[in-house]
Structures are given as C-alpha cells and as structure tokens.
Amino acid sequence: MLFKSLGEKVYIKQPEWKELEFVEWLWADKDTMMDVGGTIEFEESRRIGWYQRMVQPTDGTNFYCFIYTYEDIPIGEVSFHRFDHEKHLAELNIKIAYKYRRNGYAKEAIHLLLDYFFNEFGGEVMADRVAIHNTAGQQLLINYGFNLIKDSNQDIVLFRLRKEDFIKIMN
Fold first, then answer.
1. Which residues neighbour 74 within 8 Å (Cβ) at sequence distance 6 or greater?
2. Which Pfam family is one of those matched by this entry (predicted)?
3. Which of 6, 50, 166, 170 is the most buried (most CB within 10 A)?
C-alpha cells in the first residue's frame, strides 16, 4: 500500500509507476526548476532504479510523494533523501509547479511530510540546502519554522528543523 496523507488544501501520496510522466514533466519545466539548479532529464533508463529507491520498496533512506489538489491534479513533489540512521537526519526536497505557487500548497505539503518523518519514520532532524538566490524557498522554510544554520558557502544556505521544534509548531 502506498503512503497517503491528507491536508486541508492538498494531499500527498506516493506515486504509482504509471504516474511517473508527471516527474518527467515537472523536472523538465524551466520555470519550476530555475530556482533549484535547472531542468533534469528523467530518462526511461533511470526510472526503475529511481522508483525502487525512492518509492517502492525504497532503500530505507529516501521517501517520495506527489502533491495533489483535491481535484486530483498533481502539482508538485515533496520528499526526503539520504536519511542518516545514526544522526536520524534527512534532507528535504519540495517542488511546486510554477503555475501553482503562492497558494499555501508548499507549506502544507511540508507539514504533511514532516509529520510522517518525525512521528512515524523516526526522524529527529530535517535539513535543507537552499541556493542563495532562491529567496522564496528560504522564506518558505523560515515561515514554516526552520532555522538558518549557516551560509555553507557562497551559493548555498543551510536550514534545519528539529523534532522538538516541529512539536512546538504543531501545538
């Protein structure tokens, strides 16, 4: 059974194999991808390994979902990557298709993913590295409650949210 979690505006769900065309479209959309390093080709040859690592059965360090409106329209993706079993830390990923931005979808999708990560998966710390020019992405994380840790280098800033801070946000 694939994971699904419901919010007020959107729900997140692990995609079925037949839905992967959306990943191809999302990653190829220049407007969507300009703030996160540019477009990515999702070749047919990568799909089987990617799906097994990220969705089903997963490798135990990655977790991936689509973000849907309640009209069942996929509008983005939310996931975590590279879970460190010793530090209980993972890295956040969120992408909302450009034409669906600024509707509160990203914040809600992050909340749904973090609820799973902290309360079911066993995570303790979620981190995100954001490009210095991606001010909208940085503001989203700050508004959610992530803490700016440091400017890792000239191009990237690091944000972090601990489980105890997430619990405070929930209350």
1. 15, 19, 22, 66, 67, 68
2. Acetyltransf_3
3. 166
Domains of the chain: which residue ranges?
4-170
Residue 14 per-residue DSSP state: P
Q: How far apart are CA 49 and CA 165, in angstroms?
A: 34
Instruction: Kindly calculate the radius of gyration of the chain based on its CA atoms and give it in whole angstroms.
Output: 15
d(CA 22, CA 134): 23
Task: Report the CATH architecture of 4-170.
Answer: 3-Layer(aba) Sandwich (3.40)
Report pLDDT digits (tens) over 19-61: 999 999 999 999 999 888 889 999 888 999 999 999 998 899 9
- How far apart (Å, rounded) are the C-alpha atoms in residues 106 and 67? 9
